[in-house]
Amino acid sequence: MRNFFRSRRRTERAEVSLLQDNLPRHIAIIMDGNGRWARRRGLPRVAGHHAGMKKVREVIRACDDLGIPCLTLYAFSTENWKRPEGEVEFLMRLPEEFFRTEIDELVERGVQVRFIGDTSRLPSHTQETVRKTLERTEGNQGMTVIFALNYGGRAEVVNAAKAFAEEVASGLASPGALTEERFASYLATDGVPDPDLVIRTSGEIRLSNFLIWQAAYAELYFSDVLWPDFSREILHRAIEDYQGRMRRFGGL
Ligand SMILES: CC(C)Oc1ccc(CN(CCC(N)=O)C(=O)c2cnn(Cc3ccccc3)c2-c2ccc3sccc3c2)cc1
Question: Is 104 noted as a catalytic residue in this protein?
C-alpha cells in the first residue's frame, strides 16, 4: 500500500502537496465574511464586498491552474432587504466591474460561466451583465464556473418537483418513472457533477440552504478565515484535507 502512495505523482507546493489524480471534480464555496472583514478594519461594508470580489478572481485562477473542472460560488449574504440602502445599490453595481475587468481573462482561459438561482429579481442592469457574461462564455470548453445568485436549495428542489408534476399532468411522465437520476435532471445544476468538496469561510458551520440535494455526499470544509482573506494556499489546504479523507475511506 505504501508503494502505491509513494509512486503517485505529486505536485510539490511550498505549503502542501496535492495529488493530481485525486482532485475534486467540483468544488463549491460559500463565500462568507465580507462584512466582518470590513468592520474589523474600520472600513465601510462595501469595502469588504469589493475585497471579496477580488478573491473571486483569485480562486477562479487557482482552481483553473489546478485543473478543477467545476467551481460553484455562492455569494452568501443575509437577505438584501436587511442591508443599508447604499449597500444594495453598490452590490448590484459590483458585477459590472467584475465583468469589465475579468471577462477577457475568463474567455482566454476557456471558462464557461453559468448562473443558478432567481436572477429575475436583480435590477435590469445586473441582469444585462448576467446575459453578457453567458453570451461571452457559452460553448467554452474549459472550466465551468457557476455563480449562485439569489439562490435557495429548497426553492430549487420545489421547482424541480413542480416541473416533474407538470410532465405527469400533461401525460409526458408517470410517477413511477421518477428516480433520483431523473429528478436531478430537473435541478438548475443539470449536467454538472455533484460537488465533492464544499468550503465555507468565516467560521460559520452551516450549509445555509446551499446545494442541499447536490451536496448530499460532499466533504465539508469549514475555514475560520473571512472571505476577503481567502487565498490559493487555503484552497490548497482544503483540497489536501479532502485528499486525506478520500485516502482513509477511498480504498474500499
Ligand atoms: C459573475 C458576475 C459578472 O455577475 C454577477 C455576480 C453576482 C451577482 C449577484 N450578486 C450581486 C447582487 C446581489 N445579489 O446583491 C451577489 O450574488 C452578491 C451578493 N453579495 N455580493 C458581494 C460578494 C462578493 C464576493 C464574494 C461574496 C459576496 C455579491 C457579488 C457581487 C459581485 C460579484 S462578481 C463575482 C461574484 C460577485 C458577488 C450578479 C451578477
Answer: no
